Amino acid sequence: MDSSTARIVVRSSMLDLIRACGFSGLAGVRIDKEELRRRLLMPQYLRLAMLDSIRKKDVDGGDQHFRLRGSDSVSSSESPMVVFINSRSGGRHGPVLKERLKQLISEEQVFDLHDVKPLEFVRYGLACLEKWANNGDLCARETRQNIRVVVAGGDGTIGWVLGCLGELHQKGREPVPPVAIIPLGTGNDLSRSFGWVRYSFEFKILMLSTGFFSCFVNSCSECSLQGGSFPFAWKSAIKRTLQRATKGRICRLDSWHVVLQMPGGVAVNPPHSLKVTEECQLDQTLEIEGDVPDKVKCYEGVFFNYFSIGMDAKVAYGFHHLRNEKPYLAQGPITNKIIYSSYSCTQGWFLTPCISDPSLRGLKNVLRIHIKRVNCSEWEQIPVPKSVRAVVALNLHNYGSGRNPWGNPKPEYLEKRGFVEAHADDGLLEIFGLKQGWHASFVMVELISAKHIAQAASIRLEIRGGEWKDAYMQMDGEPWKQPMSKDYSTFLEIKRVPFESLMISGE
């Protein structure tokens, strides 16, 4: 093959790769910045009123902007949008991205989650628009009706925002704004499930792995090499993401309510997605066996992708603590994945048959599982396989950075096991098990499927200590250490939330 032919082959391969990654519009399709801003920008009096209401935590906090507006006619924007950004995500690039978003929309419509919490936006910002819409302000009514939300962060951040927007459903404050995503996390499984990873920051590593990196470096002026996070021409990529967020079709996503009941007097540090609640609402149709403590402590929360208990959560917990103790290690998703993989090898998961530590043994001796199957009101106890060291309840097809551990079972297998094809809005969780580290590794590279346990519409987990002092759990990538008692059980119950979250497709 001569050199000219080789160049043609390389160029063709590069173009095919770009198209496969969803970057066919990287060149040639220009989005006008001012036109995009015109479509996204709320009228000044509305965005200032909304921001003042949030800052003062008072629905009436922005009233002066409506009074100062006068009687001039103001039209609402075509696609009003607010952005929540976790500026500490995305390696060291979060603050740069935040400034870019402010340039493209406005400073008042971009909220750093360390300054403005999504629940404050729901209770004060949106409530301000609703108040004036009810008072006859047509622009406020149209803005509230059409507003969309973009979340720039990882799966935990997205789940936090979705959970807070769920309060609108609970209080009958429809419509609920649909959510688009700028992926800044390590796994980005929610982003993958709705087609936003093609805009994510993993494009660079794909170019590195195919040997085309040097070709692009020479031709790309806006290329950040630090931290392995931002793609080429990232400023244009952000514009395309915002444009897609205005036009993408609306999809539905199940969410799952979690109630955790544990013996009182025990200290626990749960993730921010679990909040203390005064009332424990465990299903009374399933009786609790054994003694019940005089005092119990209860938490509740919501997850959207997965809940897990066992060794995978222990590895995630250790990794999070390592990253918090040594923040200089958090250089971006690629670095995080390398460190995570290395760290998991030090935790004994690959040597569990040879280790006597009880926390590395199977879950069978400390875990009891009851489920309700679809269209069934009766609880059914299902056995925990002896070899399983992690149990995962999965809502989406993506887990562990885009893997599909449930696999794609054939129709004959589904019928034999009494399963149905899995979807994000089917009202079911897929429950599977992971054995020792070698088994989990083969599952993650999709050479085999995980150990299928059940499909369930509701789940109750019961754990009791014995030789174990702690169990490790995680929800949507947020791990915690759950103390266990030898005398009393800890219960965790999962039920589907009666309404669905609205997601914007990036496809």
TrEMBL record:
<dbReference type="InterPro" id="IPR016961">
    <property type="entry name" value="Diacylglycerol_kinase_pln"/>
</dbReference>
<comment type="subunit">
    <text>Monomer.</text>
</comment>
<dbReference type="InterPro" id="IPR000756">
    <property type="entry name" value="Diacylglycerol_kin_accessory"/>
</dbReference>
<comment type="function">
    <text>Phosphorylates the second messenger diacylglycerol (DAG) to generate phosphatidic acid (PA), another important signaling molecule. PA is required for plant development and responses to abiotic stress and pathogen attack.</text>
</comment>
<comment type="similarity">
    <text>Belongs to the eukaryotic diacylglycerol kinase family.</text>
</comment>
<protein>
    <recommendedName>
        <fullName>Diacylglycerol kinase</fullName>
        <ecNumber>2.7.1.107</ecNumber>
    </recommendedName>
</protein>
<dbReference type="Pfam" id="PF00781">
    <property type="entry name" value="DAGK_cat"/>
</dbReference>
<dbReference type="InterPro" id="IPR001206">
    <property type="entry name" value="Diacylglycerol_kinase_cat_dom"/>
</dbReference>
<dbReference type="Pfam" id="PF00609">
    <property type="entry name" value="DAGK_acc"/>
</dbReference>
<dbReference type="GO" id="GO:0005524">
    <property type="term" value="F:ATP binding"/>
</dbReference>
<keyword id="KW-0547">Nucleotide-binding</keyword>
<dbReference type="InterPro" id="IPR037607">
    <property type="entry name" value="DGK"/>
</dbReference>
<dbReference type="GO" id="GO:0007200">
    <property type="term" value="P:phospholipase C-activating G protein-coupled receptor signaling pathway"/>
</dbReference>
<dbReference type="GO" id="GO:0006952">
    <property type="term" value="P:defense response"/>
</dbReference>
<keyword id="KW-0611">Plant defense</keyword>
<dbReference type="InterPro" id="IPR016064">
    <property type="entry name" value="NAD/diacylglycerol_kinase_sf"/>
</dbReference>
<dbReference type="GO" id="GO:0004143">
    <property type="term" value="F:ATP-dependent diacylglycerol kinase activity"/>
</dbReference>
<dbReference type="InterPro" id="IPR017438">
    <property type="entry name" value="ATP-NAD_kinase_N"/>
</dbReference>
<keyword id="KW-0418">Kinase</keyword>
<keyword id="KW-0808">Transferase</keyword>
<keyword id="KW-0067">ATP-binding</keyword>
<dbReference type="GO" id="GO:0016020">
    <property type="term" value="C:membrane"/>
</dbReference>
<keyword id="KW-0346">Stress response</keyword>
<feature type="domain" description="DAGKc">
    <location>
        <begin position="76"/>
        <end position="196"/>
    </location>
</feature>
